[in-house]
From TrEMBL:
It holds the Pfam family DUF2207. Residues 46-168 form the DUF2207 domain. It comes from Longimycelium tulufanense. The chain crosses the membrane at residues 239-258, 410-428, 434-451. Keywords: Membrane, Transmembrane, Transmembrane helix. This is DUF2207 domain-containing protein.
Amino acid sequence: MLAKWGATAAAVFVTATGFLGSPPPPPSPGPAEPSPTTALPGGVAVDVKLRLERDGRLTVTEKVVVPEGKQVTRRVPLRQAVGDDLERVYSVDTRSFEGPDGGISAGPDTLAAEMGPGTSTLKYTVDGVAADVGEGQEARWQVTGGWDTDIDTVTISFVSPTPPRSVTCLAGAVGSTTGCDVSQITDGHIVRAQEIGLKAGHRLDLAVGMEPGTVPATARFEKTFSLAGAFALTPATGAGLGGLTLFLVGGVALLWWARGRDTRALASDVGPVTVLVTDAGGRVGFASPDGVLPGQVGTVVDEHVDVVDVAATVVDLAVRNYLWIEEVPGPSPDWRIVRRNPPDEHLRAYERAVYEALLPSIGPGGRDHVRVSELGGAGLDLTAVRDHLYRDVVASRWFQHRPDNERSRWWWIGLGVGLAGVVLTVVLTLTTHLALLGLAVLVGGSALVIGSRWMPARTRRGSALIEQVRGLREYLRSATPDTVPVADREMVFSRSLPYAVVLGEADHWLQTFAVLDPGADGTPGLYWYGGADDGDLRRFAQRFPAFLAALDGALAEADHLRSLRAST
């Protein structure tokens, strides 16, 4: 298999360079048998004898004559380019050196020799010279080159187990196609070549065509690094990109399935839901859909615990008589939040956490009241509120998993996959031609990071609640005091207000009910809010948004929650 592949690669090289693929030129005119020529005074002469053994290895004997007072070196590359991203690889073994001064060495990439004045003889064997080409075989080797000085004369002889069929000899700079001075087949079985005057750094390449099967094909070819080759589209990389496409399509389909219920709920036309209920005594009250509380509404809608969710919970706790809110007279507007009733079993864990964050009951920070202006510098810790509220929406079966954990989990997974993709891309770029696979992993990780925000999936119950919340918003937009008995208007107005706050309808709700008489229930003013003029709801409608803005700002300084309002 390696031999066949090597032959194919060699054929590519032949076609590209015209070195081996075209018919050999006719033998150059010259002496029938070129022989070593004595170097001119101060010149270097090289005589090389090559024998192709039956096992495919090439035995080389070099005789180098160096004039007095001169030291020469040569370096022959053992990895030689045969294309943009392909190298032919040779190996050298069984080396010996005879001469007055110098030596020979070979590594994985280079054959090196150094010779002093006099006559030196170098012997070594080369593996990887024979390759199957077309309907025959070819032996190729850079016979000499890499000299640090000009060479006066180079003579070459080559013998093989079968009579050679052709010879091509190239001399000059690496990559040139200039023929040698002499290259011919003599006596029917010996190849001889000669070059007069080889400049320093130039080389002499010899390629001999032979009968098929003359020796085992030992040529080796290896891919080399190139940026274009590293990112080439191959069957393997194509399969990887196809797998990534299926992964992304599958992810989109999964998100579509998980989000489809929400999309339909948000796209449909929804009228006001029934939130007003009449008890056995004929009193009209407010009942939220699915029993959802104001703080839960915002979390279910946008999957985050926001500042407005906590602010709406504070108002709700006041409406339910756990807290009292009163205006504080002074040059700048301020409000006081006062403990009215202690938290009990009717409060959810997150509501209790809000209560304790505002009015700690134990410890050195324990207090019965606090000004809104003091909350910003009080070092509020709302992490417990956030954690309890996320757990609460899961316990209420509106989500399968905590939305924050779900987002975080997929974000970290995406980041890890993306970083692995970066490392894999670099490694594959430097070592293989499969870098597109690493790039595919990187793209997949990036897609997970971007898509992590949409990973939290509501349950069917959560999707149904979204539709009901839209109906609740329509109720807040369309309800009027006339739809509620006079004696129950203050209670309905107050119980609905926290939902108007979290859904961004507070201003409209306040203006709509500004005409009601808070004393119609037998007590002056709102039962949960104290102001300079308890009987004037128009003034309350003007002042209360300022309270919400001040409360939002104080809670936002805790830096644990987003400062956004929910929208559906």
